[in-house]
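cache lookup: miss for this entity combination. No prior model stored, computing from scratch. Input as submitted by user K.M.:
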Amino acid sequence: MRKSNFKHSLIVLGLLLNSHAFAATPQELLKHYEVQAKQENTAFTGFSADKGANFFKTERQHSDGKNVSCSTCHTADPRNQGKTRANKVIQAMAPSVNPERFTDAAKVEKWFGRNCKDVLERACTAQEKGDFIQYLLSVK
Ligand code: HEC
């Protein structure tokens, strides 16, 4: 318990410093978001790949009138390459096909920040981030 708390602190520190790539594993990131999710919601019961799958695909209407979801750029199948609005290739999101995913805490936070704002017009909760990662890890 103590040892893993220490690891959480290191990840948090990495996020705070934010100046260097901070190597992590998807499992470490999940633990970090779990700590946060428990703080955000005392009734937190764990992350769900099913909820993450829903979150990934569900479209909502942006205030600009367009329907958008995470799949808009990342496609409905996270094993596929995606595309930005400017038509630039985005490598696959599923760690099973792209092992670089969810291995850099600062990068992950940066893109959750941007994309959640872009799609939801708010920050993602730790629950949503954890469900999202849990889902992507489940895609083989
Ligand atoms: C407008 C296009 C677009 C949309 C919509 C989008 N993304 Fe992304 N996403 C990107 C781009 C571009 C990158 C960075 C390039 C890369 O990592 O290949 C990225 C990378 C990421 C990463 C970094 C993962 C890693 O470890 O490398 C996360 C996390 C992420 N997106 C989450 C989301 C979530 C959650 C949503 C939906 C709420 C979403 N994205 C919707 C374009 C998008």
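stored under new cache key. Residues 49 and 81 are 20 Å apart (CA to CA).
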